[in-house]
Amino acid sequence: MISITVNGRVCACEEGEYLLDVAERNGMLIPHLCYHRGLLPIGACRVCIVEVIERGRSKVVASCVYPVRDGIEVHTASPRIREQRSVIIALLLSLAPGSTEIKRLALQLGADIPRLVKAPESDTCVLCGRCTAACEALGTGAIAKVGRGVTKKIAAPFDGMPPDCIGCGSCAHVCPTGTIAYEHTDESVSVWGREFELMRCTGCNAPLMTREQHDFLTRKGGESPELLCERCGKQGVARKLKTRERYLG
Amino acid sequence: MDHSTHIEEIARRYPAERRFSLAILQDIQREFNYIPAEALPIVAARLDTPQAHLYALATFYKSLSLVPKGKHVVKLCDGTACHMRGAGNLLGSLSRQLRLDADGRTDDGQFSVELVNCLGSCALAPVMVVGEAYYGKVSLEQLPTLVDSYREGGENDE
Amino acid sequence: MMSDNATSRTLLVCCGTGCLANKAAAVADALDAACPEASVKRTGCNGFCENGPIVKVQPDDISYYRVKPEHAEKIAASLGHGPVMSLLFRDADKKLVLRQADNPFYAPQHKVALRNIGTIDPLAIDDYLDAGGYRALERALAMEPDEIIAEVTASGLRGRGGAGFPTGVKWASARAEEVFPKYVCCNGDEGDPGAFMDRSILEGDPHSVIEGLAITALAIGAEQGFLYIRDEYGLACANVAAALGAAEARGYIGTNIRGSGRRLRLEIVRGGGAFVCGESTALMASIEGRLGEPRAKYVRSVQRGLWDKPTVLNNVETLANIPVIIAQGGVRFAEIGTEGSKGTKVFSLVGKVERTGLVEVPMGVTLRHLIFDIGGGIRRGRRFKAVQTGGPSGGCIPEGLLDLPVDFDTLTEKGAMMGSGGMIVMDEHDCMVEVARYYVKFLSDESCGKCTPCREGLRQMLAILTDLCEGRGQQGDIELLERLGATMKESSLCALGQSAPNPVLSTIAHFRDEYAAHIEEGRCPAGVCPALTTFVIDSEACTSCGACKKACPVDVISGDKDTPYEIARDGCIACGSCRESCRFDAVSAHQRKEALA
């Protein structure tokens, strides 16, 4: 165990833990966009910047990827951080003027620079990279960060429909600005311009997963997973156990 | 035209490891002067990597292009030294002379012209490269003759 | 008699990329044919590219410049009979210069990293061995890793790629890691516009880099390494590949280095054409076959680099210094340079100076010495305005700071940096706002686009600077650029983003008036920004030579011997080619009042 101070409060933590996690655990919220609990830290949006003072030297770091070291002093809302964070939010607002999440942050943190060139009002993507990180973590990698520099965007090959997409919807689920359209009916889901037929639970006939998801799991796991929803699956296990008890008993 | 056998052959020059993605794409680029769309699924299957990954590489790295380039690729260096010594004017002049389209190509497929990052021949600024041939201290005056020598039937057109 | 004279002589033909552009290969072939008894060697870059192709005759120590294939016969006939006068260099006083060492461009230089370039054939490993090559590696094989690192630490060598991190400290950290395998890497992704020293070393003396890398591997305990080289550097890739083959054949790398039982496998990775891949973590991502995006460096590459294993990455020029340090001892190396910056540094001195090229000088010489003594001052008697050092990560330095010593720390204190050694000289006809716009445009294309401050900051800076250059500047723009710059500098993810605002901030710091003129008066004082500038020919000064008419890309200049030359308003694109072409200063720039066509 080591200890650090965040905004004057002493916090106990493990060496190497990420600073943002430690701060949040101790009840100090740091605004963030690309950070998501279920993903490896990305460190791209820079909204979660904080000031760290170590051995008398002060620096600005992204708290979501900064591993803590014993004795560091952290300030999450010093004047320097407030200024830089507000510039970053203003930049994001000009990139995604249509996003309610960014508008909310901008209002909350007093960030707007009217002179900045604004993207069309309909734009909402902030290029945080959560969607591609989620897609890659799942092993599909169907969408990617395309281009570079100021032309960077999230897309599938040739701006078309992603051939490797399995319709799981994780990208849409993690998107902080609701940019990725994910439609769900009883029979099918559609995302990235593709429609995916849903397979059903063999127990209760509830829609379960897309055929592509099933194929993907089969490929990964080496055998075809049972088509059972969570409830029916549990019931099945319980039944089996019961049978076994009877047999053994 | 079907290039798949050829692309397959290029992909097989390297071990089936993801780290060779870029090298394979570079070889394909060298061979075809661009990355044909059909190359993506072939290389993806060979390396067991998503097509989107390869597409991202192809759009990230400048040495790769998804659109076919002209028979003669003209690179105008826009490194700082060349910029200071009028690379922009050379580009303007070439565009007018060759009637380049938005992608910097001529409609007969003979030329594509690109403004590129420093080619490291700064002492000869401004520098122009046609194919593999370097030209230093290029002047607006000599540009028309130089370009003509690469036109069909010209002394440098092979 | 003549053949005796020829037999004993070696003709060194510079075949660097610059000289090749001026048909050096044909010169070498013609010399081969004209003097079959002499030995003709094709060497790497001599650095004085503008005056190439360069041919040196040894042992007479005669240097010829601007040699053409048709001069071969003349040179052949002269061997043993004195020099060909017409091919010698003339200094500022029109005096003929025989030896390279007496040439004002070379005289003040001190070659360490470039020691062999121009005197050996890069494709002949025996040339390198004759010059003392691989002796340092033999020596290192007999040393303990800690002894090797101690020599490097004693030398005070700092990374030549720009950051200036002490090489010995880096090696010691990697050596201390107990995780294997470890890797060594050479950063040959030279991307700073205006810098070409790494290219020259890779092309002209590839074995020095391989030897440096092999010694690094011995010191940290690595058995595999990569040389990441820009794909655009075709000759460099080819020469390094050939050198790797030769080094392996002689056992300097491979499975059993000189019988020691040590092994090292080196391979070339061709860069994909992305400036950001010069950044260490992006370069490593690229070698792994991923997108060249940097990651947070709170954990260093010496701990977790390639494939999360301890990795040492050194720049080409840094590695080329290593064999010298091991062969002569670190203390001797440390005698050159300043307190904090030891050794020499190679600069590419380009732009509006009289003599351009690659120069290697001890650390600590002044900018003035570089530009005015070695570079011969500003071309065409114009006035010096600024020198941009360190490429897009660096800054513009004005006349008032020319007496600063060039080393790792001094320039950084002034908001510029020595960087990898690009040195671009600008004169009164260069607009500082346009220069800033140029670098920001470059970086907005070359940023990887991962983090917000760099990507979006550059996008907005480019929009504002373009507005300024086109007469749409607004009050408050300078302050907004400074505000954006301050945030980018501290909160960007990698060194590219953190240094991206430097060209803007340094030009604002030293040339604020010029920014103000664009905004408040719609005037470009240097006469560069076309939307704000118009050109006029002074009929008094005009000699009717017609140079401007020939140079005009849109044919709007009329005149002949009898009619005074004139620029038509209609169709003129204000590119300034006429002003640059005029030898009599008869074309001048004025503020444009009407809109540009």
Blueprint of the fold:
The complex is a heterotrimer of chains A (249), B (158) and C (597).
Chain A: E1 2-6, E2 9-13, H1 19-25, E3 49-54, E4 57-62, E5 73-75, H2 79-95, H3 100-109, H4 130-137, E6 144-146, E7 153-155, H5 170-174, E8 182-184, E9 188-191, E10 194-200, E11 207-210, H6 211-221, H7 230-248
Parallel strand pairs in A: 1-5
Antiparallel strand pairs in A: 1-2, 3-4, 3-5, 6-7, 8-9, 9-10, 10-11
Helix pairs in contact in A: 2-3
Chain B: H1 4-11, H2 21-32, H3 39-47, H4 51-60, E1 72-77, H5 80-84, H6 87-98, E2 111-116, E3 128-130, E4 133-135, H7 143-148
Parallel strand pairs in B: 1-2
Antiparallel strand pairs in B: 1-3, 3-4
Helix pairs in contact in B: 1-3, 3-4
Chain C: H1 2-7, E1 10-14, H2 17-21, H3 24-34, E2 39-43, E3 55-58, E4 62-64, H4 72-78, E5 89-90, E6 96-97, H5 125-130, H6 135-141, H7 145-155, H8 167-176, E7 183-188, H9 197-204, H10 206-220, E8 224-230, H11 234-249, E9 265-271, H12 280-287, E10 311-315, H13 316-328, H14 330-333, E11 344-351, E12 357-362, H15 367-374, E13 384-389, E14 395-398, H16 410-413, E15 422-427, H17 432-446, H18 452-469, H19 477-491, H20 495-499, H21 502-521, E16 533-537, H22 547-551, E17 557-558, E18 566-567, H23 577-581, E19 587-591
Parallel strand pairs in C: 1-2, 7-8, 7-10, 8-9, 11-15
Antiparallel strand pairs in C: 1-3, 3-4, 5-6, 11-12, 13-14, 13-15, 16-19, 17-18
Helix pairs in contact in C: 3-4, 6-10, 6-13, 7-8, 7-10, 9-10, 9-11, 10-13, 17-18, 17-21, 18-19, 19-21
